[in-house]
Design goal:
Elements lengths: L1 H25 L8 H12 L3 H18 L5 H17 L7 H26 L7 H24 L17 H5 L1
Helix pairs in contact: 1-3, 2-3, 2-4, 2-6, 3-4, 4-5, 5-6
């Protein structure tokens, strides 16, 4: 378990470094894959429990701290994405690369919807425009394409969802 935590922390730090510095320094207006979301999807596929949900929250908080603006929106988006992965993965065999691409794409859209909703609710009501929609779709597409590579690099599918029972996700897991 400690090895998994260290692996996710290192992968999150490396992902934030790549996403925030290398990609945006090279191409300032470019959409970058959301590595934190990809790690959240991996948590949702691999650890469908309260500890996985807590890990998704911590990854979101890490992304919020790295952004340096607001604390909470990425954490909320990560939690919603984790719950979406949990509900999808209990019904779909998510070991294939195409399924991972589709799940990550969908979760990226869901996370972006949560972020836009929170910003519209609390900061600026007219935040949604055509440029933002294009950026959201590009980021979701890039995240989906990069997700199988990130999963391969961190060692997924070793110890995958086959060892997790379908009943371990949800409120019943919180009561145990």
């Amino acid at each position: 378990m400690i090895r998994t935590i260290v692996l996710f922390v290192v992968a999150a730090m490396l992902g934030i470094f790549i996403q925030a510095t290398i990609v945006h320094a090279s191409f300032p207006a470019a959409a970058a894959p959301d590595v934190i979301l990809i790690l959240t999807v991996i948590l949702g596929l691999r650890y469908r429990s309260v500890s996985g949900l807590f890990g998704a929250f911590l990854l979101g908080i890490l992304a919020d701290f790295a952004s340096g603006q607001y604390v909470g929106p990425n954490a909320a988006g990560g939690i919603v994405a984790f719950l979406a992965v949990g509900s999808i993965a209990s019904r779909v065999y998510a070991e294939r690369a195409l399924a991972v691409v589709m799940i990550t794409f969908l979760c990226s859209l869901i996370k972006s919807l949560v972020l836009v909703s929170l910003f519209a609710l609390y900061i600026k009501p007219d935040v949604l425009n055509l440029n933002l929609l294009n950026m959201i779709l590009l980021e979701a597409l890039f995240s989906g394409i990069v997700a199988p590579l990130v999963m391969k690099l961190i060692g997924y599918p070793r110890g995958t969802t086959a060892s997790v029972s379908k009943t371990s996700f949800g409120w019943s897991a919180a009561r145990r």
